Amino acid sequence: MNKLRVGVIGLGYFGERHAKVYRRLPYVDLVAVCDRDAARAGRLAADLGAEATADFHALLARPDIDAVSICLPDREHTEAAVAAAEAKKAILLEKPLAHDAAHARIIVDAVEKNGVRFMVGHILRFDPRYVQVHEASRPEKLGVPIHLKAKRNGIRSVAARVGKNASILFYMGVHDVDALQWVARSRIARVYAQKIERLGNGNEDALYAVLNFENGAIGCLDYSWAWPDGLMNGYKAALEIVGTKSAAFLDCSDQGFYAVHDDRVTGGDTHLWPEINGRIVGDLGDEITHFADAVLTGAPFVQDYREAFDAIPVLDALAESARIGLPVDVKR
Ligand SMILES: NC(=O)c1ccc[n+]([C@@H]2O[C@H](COP(=O)([O-])OP(=O)(O)OC[C@H]3O[C@@H](n4cnc5c(N)ncnc54)[C@H](O)[C@@H]3O)[C@@H](O)[C@H]2O)c1
């Protein structure tokens, strides 16, 4: 069996994890890693037995790389994704596809023009809890959707770290907009959002919104990254859908693990990307393994990139609604 030869671009919080997952897959060669911080790239390359570069164009020019993960900040996806498509690499692009619909369109056009495999890292498509809510909300089980609700609340140190380079909608909110449209089997048509900024992190502290779906269902979104860092597990997330025949919901607040100290109780990630027995597993492990498997075998990805694209105009509409204080139709 031929090995998949991979490069990883952007080696911050997430790119390092992508590289470590590839490194343990027996049918993948992690050939090179790239970060504009050359020292960081050099360190990770030495740890993982890959080559290092600070220039993603140099990595993409290598004929011995078949596929890349792009893990750059949200606002820097476009140039790298277009260059990767032009270099004919299979692409795993971290979510969000882009930081607005115009840039998402540029990326999708480049992918389609160059005919490359393209997957967006919508990690919840690999989370057993979300997949089971999707399964339970099949029309023959759920009937017609009546109302839906999604929540994603995170800690303020993440908002401070990503600062002006990210917004709550694109960094976190894209997960839930994608999940809502996926389980509702319907796109969001209209939004009415409000936001608040008090902590001075360069982005929103919280955003709440009311949603109208094309199929007539109503929904709401509850986003925050204002929680103190002591929040158990660093985040709270939930999803619910109620239909004419049944309902389904999930709650990620409880990860099922507790460490008890004299003065407090702490938790830990047991689902997203926990490191267990020296390997990063969980949803991220499954996502990256799926990408590599599907590129090697030619199998379809579990999510078509056009569904990932469908989330972006909703985020634009939410941002616009929060800005002007009025309901906004999603422009498709
Ligand atoms: N699926 C998830 O749950 C999840 C979680 C975290 C992050 N992400 C996504 O992953 C992406 C990266 O996020 P992060 O938290 O790792 O960010 P980060 O800021 O920690 O890392 C980004 C890295 O990219 C490097 N970089 C920036 N511009 C570059 C360029 N032009 N060339 C080479 N290197 C460059 C930076 O030096 C930095 O090391 C974002 O799109 C984010 O939304 C997804």
Describe the structure.
By secondary structure, the chain is an alpha/beta fold. It folds into two domains: 4-121, 3-Layer(aba) Sandwich (Rossmann fold); 125-279 and 310-329, Dihydrodipicolinate Reductase, domain 2 (2-Layer Sandwich), CATH 3.30.360.10. It contains eleven helices and 17 strands. A seven-stranded mixed β-sheet has the order 12-11-7-10-9-8-17. Bound molecules: nicotinamide-adenine-dinucleotide. Nicotinamide-adenine-dinucleotide (NAD) is lined by residues 10-15, 34-37, 40, 56, 71-74, 76, 94-95, 121, 123, 171. The site of nicotinamide-adenine-dinucleotide (NAD) has 22 residues, from α1.
Core attributes:
seven-stranded mixed beta sheet, 11 helices, Dihydrodipicolinate Reductase, domain 2, Rossmann fold, single chain, 332 residues, binds nicotinamide-adenine-dinucleotide, 38% helix, alpha/beta
Secondary-structure map:
Layout: E1 4-9, H1 13-24, E2 28-34, H2 38-48, E3 51-53, H3 56-60, E4 67-70, H4 77-86, E5 90-94, H5 101-114, E6 118-121, H6 128-136, H7 139-142, E7 145-155, H8 156-162, H9 168-184, E8 188-196, E9 206-213, E10 218-227, E11 235-243, E12 247-251, E13 259-260, E14 265-266, E15 275-276, E16 279-280, H10 282-297, H11 305-324, E17 328-329
Parallel strand pairs: 1-2, 1-4, 2-3, 4-5, 5-6, 7-10
Antiparallel strand pairs: 7-11, 8-9, 8-17, 9-10, 11-12, 13-14, 15-16
Helix pairs in contact: 1-10, 4-5, 5-11, 6-9, 9-11
This protein binds nicotinamide-adenine-dinucleotide.
